[in-house]
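Weekly puzzle thread! Below is a chain. First person to post its structure in token form gets bragging rights.
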Amino acid sequence: MNYTPLLTIITTLSCLLGTISCIDCSGGGHKEQKTHITESAKQQTINLPQPTYNIFIENSASMYGYVEGVTEFEQSVYNYLSDMKIHELMDSMNLYYINSKPILCGGNISDFIEKLSPSSFKAKGGTLGTTDISNVLKMVLSDTNSNSVRFLISDFIFSPGKHRDAEQYLVNQQIGIKNTFANYLKERPEHAVLVYQLESRFDGYYYDKIDDKHRYKGDRPFYIWVIGHKEYVSKLIKKCPRSKFNGSGVKNVFSIIKGGNYIDYAVVLGTGEFSLDRNDPKRSIVKAKKDTKGMGAKKMRFEVNVDLGRLLCSDEYLVNPANYQLNDCDYDIEVVKLNNNDKYTHKFKLSTDIVKPTTLKISLKSKIPQWVEDVNDNDGIGITLDNAHKTYGFKYLVNGVYEAFTINGAECTNIIINVNK
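Winning reply:
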């Protein structure tokens, strides 16, 4: 089969403290002006019409094994689509097969799922022997309706073929995917990509990178990609969370939006020895000093409540301090998820051994999670116990998307706190 996939940018000047990287290790801040957040910088609530959901299931030959008998693939997809319908998240739903072209299959979910089978895949036609994933993505993204949410369900395997330089082919595909999404984002900068990795029983032929087919019966990964306005995707995540998936459940998640996102935040009074600045009580503290009570190391501490709910990141990502960057290396950060808080989703716990005036900037970075590398099959020959749960070339697919979204920087959002200024 001929599939196509989709690395990364990073760094500014940085220094490391534990798992936190810092842009400005001087930490002085004495040359900086006190920073205020103006109302004009805030992200406004957007009222969008009900979207159209367009669901595409790839029906090429490598997908036959996922629909042979009753499988977790069918259970997961059926339950996911049903929950969308129950929560009335869309104005309408269109169901498609897709390979060399999209093939409309109506809008009846139960009928669509009941007919998922190798014979149905064959009967609907298209180019079943090969699928160009790059071209499939272009077709999925070509919908000009900005109120559409697009779902692409596939194993996302591709094969360069017997007589091609596979490594160069993967690199070229990554560049092609980057270009496709970069062009898409020019018209729709508020759109997001969400990727779920799932697993299902598979009974069929596996096609490797040189198009050799191998009979395989066992578990195999597949993926659900969601592409649409970030407000639509955010609502979908809240109403149909990963915890509600049937089958074997969601194994991993990757999501990405463009940077520059405003988030609401506020320093929490009483979380350290300091006072709030009367002129900017949410974002500026004064008279900060080290702890004078209690046991343990004496540090200057304070906490900040933040609302990270609209950034689409998983909880695992948001509480990992390695995903944050501080411009003052004298500070440590711990991130805690808040429960039963209507306004804020997380808490930043900040501490330092050195008390000084500073303008502290805390940035959440857009990063490709480690699971993408872990699930990538680097070899692509045959199928074994080592690569049965992996996908050849998958990281190139994700890297292409990542590069498009982070072409102007890998900072998802940031907050700024003035300390003793």
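Puzzle host: Confirmed. Bonus trivia for everyone else. The first strand starts at residue 15 and ends at 17.
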